[in-house]
Design a protein that fits this description.
Elements: E1 14-15, E2 18-19, E3 25-34, E4 40-49, E5 56-60, H1 69-78, E6 89-93, H2 98-101, H3 126-137, E7 144-149, E8 155-163, H4 168-177, E9 181-184, H5 192-198, E10 203-209, H6 216-232, E11 247-249, E12 252-256, E13 261-265, E14 272-273, E15 278-283, E16 289-294, E17 299-305, E18 309-310, E19 315-321, H7 328-337, H8 340-350
Parallel strand pairs: 5-6, 5-7, 7-10, 8-9, 9-11
Antiparallel strand pairs: 1-2, 3-4, 4-6, 8-10, 8-17, 12-19, 13-15, 13-18, 14-17, 15-16, 17-19
């Protein structure tokens, strides 16, 4: 699959007044804000330019400061000997939200979410001003974008691309990335991917894993996906690696607990489940069964809580409803035939929770 050439490509040639000669690469800084002590906050940026003109792609991690898998993916890519661009340029930012990263937090010091502040304002809040700088200095210079995320705290996600498939450029990136699951959604108002795409820079998000970790299999999946996209843009010569199937998810549902209790999990992220299949058993602290939570429809497990103790109304798992005519059994068979990365990712993410068979006497 190849992403078609855009009418105008923005090969990046200058950064902060410093010329980027064809075939060069370098480490730079982006002045993003100031600290309480008036010290300039500088975000590290790596720019790699081919000796031929072509599209410029931005790659960002840790837009939420505690989501470190994206940082790990970008660091691995920059050390990958196959990352030799045949045309265009790559603008990679391992930690976009440095103020939140240094606090091990999702949020900025003022408790605002930077990923709800785009495209930002030069005279707004801290988050809004940072967003405006990122928009002007990064998004406006690029033709395409990939933003790398994880699940929120106490949750984990199976690798999934989130994309607005009504935008042809976004759709081509999403399919080229090569995740098994693509979640078709426009993105929250003020999010980087939504506002960048609206501004003419098609952008996708990869979600995978959990906060405060760099998980090896998630890194492998992310590196593979980014290289697939660059290959589809004719920016790399490496081979494309893809799963045996991809499914577009139009509807998702968080399955929630009806009662407080302690959960016995029966599924892991990435599992393909059938309607009525047990997802978790809610028990008392002494192990007495209170209820069994079942799947409301055939679905893929997009993500789940990693915390077995639960209150009424709290989320257990996030399900993506399989498209009409797609059978859970068929996808499970295709998964078995595909490369082992998807199976390894699911098993690795599942190691964060204790999974037992339904009606098992085992305890959590």
């Amino acid at each position: 699959m190849s992403v078609s050439r855009r009418a105008s490509e923005k090969t990046i040639r200058v950064w902060n007044g410093e010329e980027l000669s064809p075939g060069s690469s370098g480490d730079f800084w982006l002045d993003i804000s100031e600290s309480y002590s008036s010290v300039t906050v500088k975000v590290p940026v790596h720019i790699r330019r081919s000796d031929k003109d072509g599209p410029t792609v931005f790659l960002t991690g840790a837009l939420h400061g505690d989501e470190l898998n994206g940082t790990g993916i970008i660091r691995a890519l920059l050390r990958d000997p196959e990352l030799r661009l045949r045309k265009g340029a790559l603008l990679a930012i391992p930690v976009l939200n440095l103020l939140a990263f240094e606090r091990h937090s999702r949020y900025l010091p003022d408790r605002r979410d930077l990923n709800r502040a785009f495209p930002g304002s030069a005279t707004g809040t801290l988050a809004s001003r940072m967003a405006r700088t990122i928009f002007d200095e990064v998004v406006a210079r690029c033709d395409y974008g990939i933003d790398l995320h994880t699940a929120a705290v106490r949750r984990t996600n199976y690798p999934t691309v989130r994309a607005d498939l009504s935008d042809p450029g976004v759709g081509l990136l999403a399919n080229a990335f090569g995740c098994e699951v693509i979640q078709n959604c426009g993105g929250p108002k003020g999010s980087l991917r939504r506002e960048a795409s609206k501004a003419g820079c098609p952008t996708i998000v990869m979600e995978g894993g959990e906060v405060w970790k760099v998980e090896p299999d998630i890194v492998e999946a992310g590196v593979r996906g980014v290289k697939n996209v660059l290959r589809s843009l004719d920016m790399l010569d490496c081979n494309t690696q893809r799963p045996d199937y991809q499914v577009n998810i139009e509807k998702t549902k968080w399955v929630r607990a009806d009662r407080g209790g302690f959960l016995h999990f029966h599924i892991i992220p990435g599992d393909i489940v059938e309607k009525g299949q047990p997802l978790a058993t809610n028990t008392t602290l002494l192990g007495r069964e209170q209820s069994v939570v079942g799947a409301p429809f055939d679905a893929v497990v997009l993500g789940m809580t990693t915390l077995p103790a639960i209150n009424p109304g709290e989320p257990i798992c996030n399900l993506g409803r399989l498209p009409k005519g797609t059978r859970a059994f068929d996808l499970r068979q295709l998964r078995k035939r595909s490369g082992d990365l998807e199976e390894r990712v699911a098993e690795s993410l599942g190691s964060s929770v204790l999974v037992v068979e339904p009606n098992s006497e085992s305890s959590c």
